[in-house]
Amino acid sequence: MVVCSVVVRRLLAAAPAAPRHVFTGLRWVTSTPVKFTDRKYTDKHEWVQVEGKIGTIGITHYAQDALGDVVYAQLPDPGQEFSQMDECGALESVKAASELYCPVSGKIVSKNTEVEDTPGLINKSCYEKGWLFKLELSKLHELDGLMDEAQYEKFLKTDDH
Amino acid sequence: MTFWNQGKALGRWALRAFSSATRSSRSATPKTVFISQSDDIFANLALEDWLYRHHDFSQHRILLLWRNGPAVVVGRHQNPWKETHVGALHDKQVVLARRNSGGGAVYHDQGNLNLSFLTSREGYNRRTNLTVVANALRREFGLEATVNDRDDLVLNGNYKISGTAAKLGRPNAYHHCTLLADVDLDNMKGILNSDDCGIETKATDSVRSPVCNLSSMHPGLNVASLMGAVGREFLRSDDRGVDLGKSAISRQLGFTLVNPTDDWFPGLEKSRAELASWGWRFGRTPDFTVRREFAVPREMCVTEGAKLQVQMRVVKGRVASMSVTVPPGFVSNAPEGEVAVLSGLEGQKFSEEAVGLVEAAFAKKDKSDKKKRFVAECVRRVVQ
């Protein structure tokens, strides 16, 4: 039993995101470790994921659902500079153009041309293929003021979103 | 009285009206109807934008009523060359404008009423606004107007009398729509284009529908009487579009005439200039490729039925690249096929200005005046 529980602990410690079948001594159970992303969120329903000084920005599932089918994505061009919360582009769905706000200050490094060609990617895959643009952050400390995933989930449950 | 003083006065009124409004209905935000004194499309679009950017709509809603001289107004992400014959507008004294909201192209003249419902983001509700308009038409003119599943206002089930578009930001949003009171429909049909014109683009399209004027259903109805009817209905409705009765009107903030100038709205002139600029109206066009073929006159080539093709890539309203594909015998001492890209055009506006440059560039390749003029004419038809 002791050997088994040590084995179990080691297996769980080494567990990647995939489910592991673990023998607890009594029965086999499947354990899927919960993995929060390190995305940060704004109250305008945009997310930013940072690696080093480069942030990738997109809109959340809640936002794409509220928008409806996106028919046109107007994204900022590489080289443009924005301050936090500047209007930097727009997403057009049927009859409404929704503003895009830059969640952190910085200079645009690239935009997702796949999304420009196929705006529907934003609806289908808002966290992966539907990313909007990347920028080089000029004020990393601004990230501290954004919500993490748990805080964003809580925010969605309030009336103020 | 400047807007700031008016704003302060409105603010005090709003608070008083809010408390009395809450006694009668908790869902009736204080409301004002603004009527613009200008008929300049750019000033009115700038006014709408100013209110959207600067006003606090958390405890206030505004219905802005405005009209303007003849104009084609395209949606934010549209291609004006696809929506209308841009080159012909000047002679017809029609201006081209691009609005900040999405949607398709519309034609305005003095017989068209524009309505902008400005609210907070949370207060935005397109269907409620259109229901208020439909109620006004029914109450004051006995017209059977309904809101269809495309959120269009239609008369008697099928005639479109209004086009709708919206801009959603935070903290504010607006929904605006047109109302065809007494518009010159023949002029409108001639100006709004449904031809393909060889343009390939990701720009948003317009959806064409059969239209009619409200005055055709109710003689004597005009923009002025519509303004009063819709304004009153807006003031007597709650936030869900439910009628609170005629007495509710006096508890609201009434009608106010406004002048879209810097005196009243600081910074408005700069916004107006931006909206009227070539860079906004044409330069904001999504990138596109245009490809068109033209029948070449027999005497200019060696075979029957020969075609000349003009292709251009246009980025931000300017020519990024251009090529002309010629039939056999068209260019002396040169084989058929693509003529070397006519240089000197890159960066030129996609307009009549490019035509002169094409003529000059072609003249270097072939001495024939007739052919030069023919090529120029083809290019002219492409840029219009």
Quickly describe the structure.
Chain A: Keywords: Lipoyl, Mitochondrion, Transit peptide. The complex is a heterodimer of chains A (161) and B (384). Chain A has 161 residues and is an alpha+beta fold.
Low-confidence region ranges of chain A: 1-24
The assigned structural class of chain A equals alpha+beta
User: Under the CATH scheme, which class of the domain at 40-139 in chain A?
Assistant: Mainly Beta
Mean pLDDT of chain B: 86
User: What's the order of the H and E elements of chain B?
Assistant: HEHEEHHEEEHEEEEEHEHEHHEEEEHH
Helix coverage percent of chain A: 10-25%
SS elements, strand count of chain A: 11
What is the spatial order of strands in the main beta sheet of chain A?
A: 3-4-5-11-10-7
Principal-axis shape of chain A: globular
Query: Biggest interface, and residues per chain?
Result: A-B, 18 and 20 residues
Q: For the record, give the distance between the C-alpha atoms at the N and C termini of chain A, rounded to a whole number.
A: 50 Å
Give the low-pLDDT segments of chain B: 1-26
Oligomer type: heterodimer
CATH architecture verdict of the domain at 40-139 in chain A: Beta Barrel
The side-by-side strand order for the widest beta sheet of chain B comes to 10-11-6-2-1-13
Strand content of chain A: 25-35%
Q: At the fourth CATH level, what is the homologous superfamily of the domain at 40-139 in chain A?
A: RNA polymerase II/Efflux pump adaptor protein, barrel-sandwich hybrid domain
Q: Tell me the fraction of residues in β-strands of chain B, as a range.
A: 15-25%
Anisotropy-based shape of chain B: elongated
Describe the structure.
The complex is a heterodimer of chains A (161) and B (384). By secondary structure, chain A is an alpha+beta fold. Chain A is built from 5 helices and 11 strands. Chain A has a 6-stranded antiparallel β-sheet. Chain A has a 3-stranded antiparallel β-sheet with strand order 6-8-9, with no helix packed on it. A two-stranded antiparallel ribbon of chain A has the order 1-2. Chain A starts with a helix and ends with a helix. Mean pLDDT of chain A is 82; it is low at 1-24. With 384 residues, chain B is of the alpha+beta class. Chain B contains 11 helices and 17 strands. Chain B has helices spanning 3-24, 41-54, 80-83, 86-89, 126-141, 185-191, 223-236, 268-276, 278-281, 352-363, 369-383, and strands at residues 31-36, 61-66, 71-74, 95-98, 106-108, 112-120, 145-147, 153-155, 159-160, 164-168, 172-180, 199-201, 255-258, 288-295, 307-315, 318-326, 337-339. In chain B, β8 and β9 (159-160) form a beta hairpin. The A-B interface holds A 43-44, 71-72, 74, 87, 90, 92-99, 101, 116-117 and B 75-77, 100-103, 126, 151, 164-170, 202-204, 286. β9 (96-101) of chain A pairs parallel with β10 of chain B.
